[in-house]
Amino acid sequence: MQPRIQYARTSDGVNIAYAESGAGAQVMLMAAPGYSHTELNATVYGAMNSAASQFHTVWYDARGTGLSDRDALDYSIEAMLCDFEAVVARVNFDSFVLAAWSHSVPVAITYTAANPERVSHLVAVDGYSTSRDFIDLPAWKASAALLEVDWQLFTETLAQVMWAPSNPEFGRALGAFLRACSEPDAHRAMFHAWLTRDVTELLPQIAVPTLVIQDKNNRLTSMVAGQRIAAGIPGARFATTDDITYGAALKLAEAFVSESEAQPDITSSIPSGTAVILFADIADSTALTERLGDAAFRAKARELDGALRTLIRDHAGTPIEGKLLGDGVLAVFTSARQAIEAALACGAAGSHAELPLHLGLHAGDVIREDNNVYGGAVNIASRISGLSSAGEVLVSETVRSLARTSAGVRFEDRGEQPLKGVGERVRVWAVVQTAG
């Protein structure tokens, strides 16, 4: 069946062809310029399409390629994001799995770092975070030279020699597909744009479940490139395949997404009852805003917010959605030890980001409502946080009593403190990490 092709218009006036199929989890396939044609994808990527059939999948052609406007040849990350955002707006997905391949991976990393609330999972296949990981590869140098002199020879060599020497039938089909996807001038513009890509600094900011897949036979992107992405993203998984048609990669992605979705939604299952509550907020945010400027401060705060949420999840906590830095990050735990470990890790992250944090912990009854938590215990945790010095973790007597035999830290008594809105004074303790 032929795909139903539609168009989205970008903010800079480019018409982007896209199509969608299937049902289930919502998946956006980010276009890799020069390697996508909405009408012809199935002729080459049939195995991949079959693996993705259980998802509600959207794919599209980047500007200058496929059935999108062919005269727009800007392949900067900004332009690629413009194409992607136009399609996302048109299909109206609130949250989706973002799958990216090859040269679209740096674009996907950029989008995910800036929009963690939109991306439920990130899957990066045969990608890289910096052009330094491929520009010195012999296959890349040879391909770049051929592209400058002979379009037919370039596509045939890329497909049958660089890509699919073990599968001649697939290689021949791929060569014809590449020639249909773009014109020589467009592909040369892509090559030049790819040489400037470097999103390494964004990797630690990715705060969503991430799977990095690398094909063992890919001569154009090294295994090391994928390993560096996985090492740079907190909690990312790394996997390898031996399948140039990418059907195996999609099966890995399918299992990854299904496994994550099968995990219980901790936030929605938080009962009204006892919890250990962490409250974190940026110290002296007003002065920082004045020094950095509002836009710069908010950007740094958003980056740190994503990092803190990852650290909280890494310590078996649940960050409460809707609470952002500036208003305070709120999280709940079932273990006082894990809550203290998370608070210390968050404090270190704030110091590293040059946005030191006030951090406070309390344990008590909470009321869960609409994926948020309320109650007097939450208020006390917030007030204790406000008493702490920048970078310091203060805990209530309740938390100290729960954790003192298992947390691997010691506590310094800060005495009984009055808390605004709380009738009785509350004894607080400073957490001090022990040597070794």
Notes on the protein architecture:
The protein has 16 helices and 16 strands. The strands form 2 sheets. An 8-stranded mixed beta sheet has the order 1-2-4-3-5-6-7-8, with helices on both faces. Strands 9, 10, 11, 12, 13, 14, 15 and 16 form an 8-stranded mixed beta sheet that branches. The protein is elongated. The N and C termini lie far apart (64 Å).
The CATH first-level class of the largest domain comes to: Alpha Beta
Shape: elongated
CATH architectural name of the largest domain: 3-Layer(aba) Sandwich
Strand order of the largest sheet: 1-2-4-3-5-6-7-8
Radius of gyration over C-alpha positions, nearest whole angstrom: 25 Å
The CATH superfamily label of the largest domain reads Alpha/Beta hydrolase fold, catalytic domain
Largest beta sheet, briefly? 8 strands, mixed
Q: What is the third-level CATH name, the topology of the largest domain?
A: Rossmann fold
User: Given the structure, what is the number of helices?
Assistant: 16
Which segments are poorly predicted (pLDDT under 50) over 5 or more consecutive residues? 263-272
